Task: structure prediction
Amino acid sequence: MVTAIIACAGSGVRTGFNENKLFKKINGKTIIEKTYGVFKNCKLINEIILTVSIKDQTYIKELIPDAKIVIGGSTRTQSVRNGLDAATGDIVLVHDGARPFVTKEIILDAIESVKKYGSGIASYPTADTLAAADDGFITKNLGKTGKFVIQTPQAFYLKDILKAYSLGDEDCPDESSLYLKYIGKPHLSKGSPSNKKLTYAEDFTTNKVGNGYDTHELVADRKLILGGIEIPHDKGLLGHSDADVLTHAIMDALLSAAGLRDIGYYFPDTDEKYKGISSVILLEKVMYLLKENGYKVINVTACVLAQKPKLAPYIEKIRDNLSKIIGVNKNDFGLTATTTEGLGFIGREEGIAVYATCLLSNI
Ligand code: MG
Result:
């Protein structure tokens, strides 16, 4: 019998979140559900125990109704200890709830290692030189040969690790250090840099791409506005607002990437208050919506399709204007223009079209 104990009682203070970091979602699933899912899909695991804090237990029960839940203590050591007391397997794996990228291979190798050597500690050789330091100064260069990064899962025979815990109840960094002190040398098993522990806010960053497209008709007696800049021309774009086709396509790309509705939904052309409005004002509103939903823009790129006028003299001015409103460096706002070689409605100078693409991050 094999029991997995997943430590979920941490407060995650280093992330700066005001809730347990294990409740953060990656691609629509909480970290704890992802971590639990990997163990659940492992046929060799017979029992999974989650050690959780009192305040999180109701929500974790809701998320994972079939999990066996044990209330953790004030430290990680105490929490794991409580989990070990409830374990019924003769082999136990201890794993951090915040390592959702653990794989079946890593878990199976740790179990194999226990059967062969009495313990299995997920690890990989460091690629960086390690150093001991004190008060900002290196006191000893430890090199990198023979140095390993220690991760979880860490697997043992239950009787051995219980014995180690009974001999030393001090707060230890992990089970392998306790095992080394009281039982013997722990054996290294397969780990991986991708089996990382999500610790800082940046570790939770995900990116989202968005596309937008817009067309407006070119007519006489209208101003031609692109990216908030007036461009001298004998025709302008027709629309309810200022018909700034470029800004419209960009707004739709941004809203789409954030999983929000399109500009027609937020700024309907049946609403009198948007009649003749400058579209960059609407873009400012879109930026506010993104911020409210926890997104920032990484970059935007757009392509204007127009037979006339030549846009080259205005590209830099438009980039300056829109990059400021979007809150990115000018280098992160790409703008190209092309004709359609006289083909189609654009070639006949009946209209202008724009494709826009953007990348957002969730922090
Ligand atoms: Mg439009």
The two ends are 42 Å apart (CA to CA). Residues 104-117 form the longest helix (14 residues).
